[in-house]
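DUF3137 domain-containing protein, pasting as requested.
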Amino acid sequence: MSTLSLVLIVVSVVGVGVGAALLIRRQRYIKSLRDRGWTFDGSPGFDTVARLSNPPFGLGFKRSPDDQITGLTAGGRPFQVIEYGSEYWKGWVGMVTLSRHLPELWVTGGQTLPRSGVSATMVPVPPALGTGWTVGVQDPAFANEVLTGQLCVALLTLVSSQPGVNLSIDGDQLVVQDPPRKDPEQLAPWLEQLATLAAAIDAAPLDRWIQPVREPRLSFYQHPEWYWVGQDDSLLQSTPVTRSGHDHSTSNVIRGRDGDGPPFVAFTHDWKTTRTESSTDSEGRTTTRTVTENHSEPLLGFELPVHLPRLTVGYSGRGISFESEAFNDQFSVKADDQKFAYDVIHPRQMEFLMATRPSPFQVTGNWAWFQVSTHDHQTIARNSYFFRDFLAWIPRFVWKNVGLQDSPYPQR
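Structure tokens follow.
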């Protein structure tokens, strides 16, 4: 037997041994959890995180819940410890349930950086917490009312037993990153500390801050009316996707709206094309092969409340001439009805377009389709806010001309 063969056998035996040891250790770990009356699920569904939308949740299109531990604390408060991953973060989080759905709150202390992806106002830290803490909220008044002396004492107790604390309120969940999940003997008292924090929040007079209960579906941070669909190939029949090729499908379908803005659909369209290539070698023999290529394109469309004449706003090609040379130099506007174009693209609208420089788009019928290069959270949000304001700049008489009594998008 050669030396190489012997080495391969040894490596294989060691690999099998390590795998068996890891499996045995995992089974013992799961048993220790169940012995406490807790539940372990190695393949939890998306419903386990559907009510959560604040980072690390609510970001990205690829979300992956993994090993999950659930149960009740000593006082009967439901908890969850779960492994979670997305394009932006991967790790473990622990959470306990609050008695009310509350606005977002962010508290970090010790050797911990503020949570990535958060958009919040940093407010002064209560003197009772001391130094080394940061607090973020959307409304500073909420921070003043929730950070009671009782909660500050509980936070100081929690940080005294670990290097740092990264805590948030997400609806009716008090969420903390990096739980000591490897050892149930450490996890149990840690969960009791979270329960103490939750009890302090429940005891505070915060009823005026109660938020609406969210629908149990995958949502997006600070976009409560966006929701994840995943795949909806019926869109291939009703949207301006590329028609050539074969094996057409949709992925990462998102629907929603922002406030009183128009509803949107955003997704990736995937398809394939096949071609035949022939080549001749030096001896004159010809061979033929079939080449299949994969393609994708992002689609972003906004639904309008009424049928509008075709109007295209872009940056290239010969377009309608407007009274502003600065606008004509930057934009190319095309329309089937020039009067409609002049009514919509008035001087204030031109100023708005030049200030915002939106993605090119075309209004056609009951939809406006944007020419975007990527399908992501930021692209959808930017164009959603822009288009709502663009529609608000359309004069009332234009809306009346197409059958509405008033503008569906008043100026803000």
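Note for the archive: The chain has a mean pLDDT of 92.
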